[in-house]
Design goal:
Number of helices: 14
Pfam family, one: PepSY_TM
Strand content: 5-15%
Largest sheet: 8 strands, antiparallel
Structural class: alpha+beta
Keywords: Membrane, Transmembrane, Transmembrane helix
Strand order of the largest sheet: 4-3-2-1-7-8-9-10
Number of strands: 10
Number of domains: 3
Radius of gyration: 27 Å
C-alpha cells in the first residue's frame, strides 16, 4: 500500500540504510502488514471506486423509476401518500421525499412484511411507477461490500476498519523507508526510473514507492474520512467532536440543555442523516389529544427554514415521535449542492415547533472538517472530484500490485521471504513503545498486535516448519 525500498531476504552488504536496526524493523512491519492486508485493500479500493459514481449509475439503472414526463400541476403530498396506502394497505409509511425536479418522481418509503421499500410515485397523477427494496439495490449492495456488512457482518466491518488503520501505518512506515537520506537524484525518489521496466525489480520498486509518495496525502485523507463511518474509530471521533463543545442545534428559541424533552435515541437511529448530526439526540413531541400535522405543513416549515430541495421527511414513531427533515447533498443529483447545504430538523408532530435545527453553521470546526473530508471521500464536489478519486483507486491498485510483484520476484523458493528480525534489543524496546502508541491511537491495531503476539508465542513458535517458512 505504501512505499518500500525493496523486498528481499538479505540486504546488500554495502547498503548503509539496511544496516540500521530501525530501518530493518520498520521494513519488517511494512512487509507483514502489506502481505496481510493487500487483498482487502485492493477490494476496498475497487468497491469504493464504483460507489463514487452512485448518482450516475443509479440514474441509468433506475431511470424508469426516477423520471417521468412533466405535467401541469403536481398532486398534494397527502394525495400521493394516500395512493400508496391504497396499493399497500398493510404497510407503514416511514418517510416522504418530495419530487425535487420537474421530471423526478416522489419517493415514499414503506415498511412491509419486514422489508423496507421505496415506492416511486408520479407526482402529477399519483400513479405508482414502481418500487425498490432498499437493501437490494445495486449501490446498497456495493456499499455493504465496501463496509464489510454483506460478507462479514460485524466482523467484516471491524476487518475493514482494521485494514484502514493498518493502511495508515503502511503509509508512515513506507515514507520512512522511502526517505532519500543519502540519495540526491530525483530519479527513483520523485520520478520512476522507467528505463528499467523490462521485468526488473527496480522498476516495480520505483512504481511502488514514487507513486505512493505522490498519492500519500490523498490516501491519508481518504483513510481518515473513511474511518469516520466505522464503529470504533468513528465513535471516538463523535465523542471528541462532542467534547469540543463547538456548535449546538437551535430551535424556534435558543437551544439550551433540557429546553425540550429528549429521548436517548440518536438521530442516526431514525434517519440516514449527515455524519455531524448522527448523534444529535432526538427531541420528543409533547403528546396532545390532536392529530399529527399533515406532511404539507412540514414541507412549509422546511421551506421557511431554507432547506435545500432534495430533502427527505422521516415520519414520527409513536405519540412522542417527531418529524425529522434532513438533507444529504450526496443524494441530490444532478444538482449536487455543497456539504454546506447539510441540514437536519426535528419538528414537533402536533404544533410544528422546530425543536432542533442543525446545519452547517451549527457544526463545530471538527464537524465541518470531517464533513468536508467525507464529501471529498464520496466525490461530492463534482466530476473533477470523482475523476480524482478514480485516479486514486487506480493508483492504490498499482501500488499494492507492484509491492506484491517485488516480493514475488525476491522471495526464496518455498519460503515467505520476510526481512530478517534485528537483534538490537535496545532498539526493540523503542519499537515496543511506538507499538504501544499506535495501539492506543488505533484500538483495533492494538488488539490485532496482541492477537499476533499470542499466536506467535503459543502456536507458531511450536511449529518448526512454519518458522522456517516465515524465516
Amino acid at each position: 500500500m505504501s512505499p518500500v525500498d525493496s523486498i528481499q531476504t538479505k540486504p546488500p552488504a554495502d547498503s548503509h540504510r539496511n544496516r540500521q536496526p530501525w530501518y530493518a524493523m520498520v521494513w519488517r512491519w511494512h512487509f507483514y502488514a502489506g502481505i496481510v492486508f493487500a487483498p482487502l485493500i485492493i477490494f476496498l479500493a475497487i468497491t469504493g471506486g464504483i460507489y463514487i459514481y452512485k448518482p450516475q449509475i443509479e440514474s441509468i439503472l433506475y431511470k424508469d423509476l426516477y423520471y417521468v414526463e412533466t405535467g401541469d400541476q403536481k398532486l398534494s403530498p397527502s394525495e400521493q401518500i394516500a395512493n400508496v396506502k391504497k396499493h399497500h394497505p398493510d404497510a407503514e409509511i416511514t418517510s416522504y421525499k418530495p419530487s425535487f425536479e420537474a421530471n423526478r418522481t416522489s419517493e415514499i418509503e414503506i415498511s412491509k412484511d419486514g422489508k423496507e421499500l421505496t415506492v416511486f410515485v408520479n407526482p402529477y397523477n399519483g400513479d405508482i411507477v414502481g418500487d425498490l427494496n432498499n437493501n437490494e439495490t445495486f449501490m446498497e449492495q456495493m456499499k455493504n461490500l465496501h463496509n464489510g456488512e454483506l460478507w462479514g457482518g460485524v466482523v467484516g466491518n471491524r476487518l475493514v476498519e482494521l485494514a484502514a488503520c493498518w493502511a495508515v501505518i503502511l503509509i508512515i512506515t513506507g515514507i520512512y523507508l522511502w526517505w532519500p537520506r543519502q540519495r540526491k537524484s530525483i530519479f527513483g525518489t520523485l520520478i520512476p526510473r522507467l528505463r528499467s521496466w523490462k521485468g526488473k525489480r527496480m522498476f516495480w520498486r520505483d512504481l511502488h514507492a514514487v507513486l505512493a509518495v505522490w498519492l500519500s496525502v490523498l490516501l491519508v485523507i481518504q483513510l481518515f474520512s473513511g474511518l469516520m463511518w466505522t464503529e470504533v474509530w468513528g465513535s471516538i471521533a463523535h465523542r471528541v467532536e462532542a467534547l469540543s463543545g463547538e456548535g449546538s442545534p437551535v430551535g424556534d428559541q435558543p437551544f439550551e440543555k433540557d429546553a425540550f424533552p429528549k429521548s436517548t435515541i440518536p438521530t442516526k437511529e431514525v434517519a440516514d442523516v449527515p455524519w455531524a448530526a448522527e448523534n444529535l439526540a432526538v427531541p420528543a413531541s409533547e403528546s396532545r389529544n390532536s392529530a399529527s400535522l399533515p406532511v404539507e405543513k412540514i414541507i412549509q416549515i422546511a421551506k421557511a427554514k431554507n432547506v435545500h430541495p432534495g430533502y427527505k421527511i422521516a415520519f414520527p414513531e409513536g405519540k412522542t415521535g417527531v418529524y425529522t427533515v434532513f438533507l444529504d447533498p450526496a443524494e441530490v443529483y444532478p444538482d449536487r449542492p455543497s456539504p454546506q447545504a447539510q441540514q437536519t430538523l426535528h419538528i414537533d408532530q402536533y404544533d410544528g415547533k422546530v425543536l432542533a435545527d442543525y446545519g452547517w453553521d451549527d457544526y463545530g470546526s471538527l464537524g465541518k472538517l470531517i464533513s468536508m473530508g467525507i464529501a471529498f471521500h464520496q466525490g461530492e464536489f463534482g466530476p473533477l472530484n470523482q475523476l480524482l478519486m478514480l485516479a486514486l483507486v487506480i493508483g492504490i491498485v498499482a501500488i499494492v500490485l507492484s509491492g506484491i510483484v517485488m516480493w514475488w520476484k525476491r522471495r526464496p523458493k518455498g519460503r515467505l521471504g520476510a526481512p530478517s528480525r534485528p537483534r538490537n534489543i535496545k532498539m526493540l524496546k523503542s519499537v515496543a513503545i511506538l507499538i504501544l502508541i499506535l495501539g492506543v491511537f488505533f484500538p483495533l491495531v492494538g488488539l490485532s498486535l496482541i492477537f499476533v503476539w499470542l499466536l506467535d508465542r503459543f502456536i507458531l513458535r511450536r511449529i518448526p516448519a512454519i518458522q522456517r517458512w516465515m524465516g
